[in-house]
Predict the structure.
Amino acid sequence: MTELAIIMMGAVLTNNFVLVKFLGICPFLGVSKKLDSAIGMSLAVIFVMVLATAVTHPIYMGLLAGFGIEYLQTIVFILVIAALVQLVEIAMKKYMPALHKGLGVYLPLITTNCAVLGVCILNIDESYTFIQSIVNSFGAGVGFMLAMVMFAGVRQRIETNDFPIAFKGVPSTLVAASIVSLSFMGFAGVIDGIFGL
Amino acid sequence: MNNNKLALLRNGIIKENPVLVLLLGTCPTLAVTTSAINGLGMGVSTMAVLICSNIVISILKNVIPDKVRIPCYIVVIAGFVTIVSLLLQAFAPAINEALGLFIPLIVVNCIILGRAEMFANKNSVIDAAFDGAGMGLGFTFALFLMGSIRELLGSGAWFGINLTADLISPMAIFMLAPGAFFTYGCLVALINYLSKGRAIKKKEFGCEGCPSASGCPSAAKGGCGQ
């Protein structure tokens, strides 16, 4: 149980997917203008990350490792994720129209989000078990959400600030992201402290 | 004729530099540029995949059915990424180790799918190859530039050779995550300044260049959360 808690905390705070590992930067910078869309996008990412891990982990362990064709990992994973996202979107549209209205618009964007493929590959690289992988993916998604929501707040505040002309728009966003990321470095020793490692 | 090809190359390197002007492929740009050699390695790997996939997609443009073109492109790209990753494992294990996760993630680099969708499936094979080379060189150049700046400021070295580390104590923060965002922000601001704001006008991480834009309902409305 402690082990799972460490993985979860690590994925959310110390190894935050966006601010420390640089995965999923495009949605982080692109969709964080408004709080609502930031939350919607993050929920969709958490959902797809957990689902994609639940599917790719058994495929890797059973099919790829079983037949000794691990080198096909990249091709198989991206195709499985793409097909999965399509299926989820179709099913959601049919059976859960309310949810589709909230999350559906973000689903096509997620297919080519490097955070989703990244977490699936990372789980294999770290040789996590199935349960550990699911926890890690969920933690990564929550970490993504934390970063998105925090950054949406920061951006709403800097929107009206007066920057030098050259820094208006994207550069100021990036510098703000740099400061938010600096704050996440403060979490570096937190896990060791809590669990007395 | 020759002018046209040169223009394609120059377009990728300067006018539409994928990293500094179009703001695509931000994840590898921020993640692997801890040193000049890593930036160069990532740039060259991506360029190889980009040129090959552009050529193949341009050859197959009349064969691939329009409705399933994105999955087809992804398969082609993923195939080349696997080849590059195996080659790196065999011949450049140090770079492979340093780039790690970001080698398989070339598959989801928006630059590659974006060029397939916007250029390769409409143009001739040779043009597509030149476009791939131009975009690849632009990407490599930007990554190399960022890697050099971060390595010089962060560890006082360039390509691992000690330059200023003894004179000024290196600012290790430039090697870490915040330094990456900061360096990238300053570079984009510099481009803004040099081009007097013309280069990056409304391109705020927009849907242009996003490979999913064609299938994305919110892209038609002008972007997410609009």
In short: Chain B touches chain A through 56 residues (CB under 8 Å).
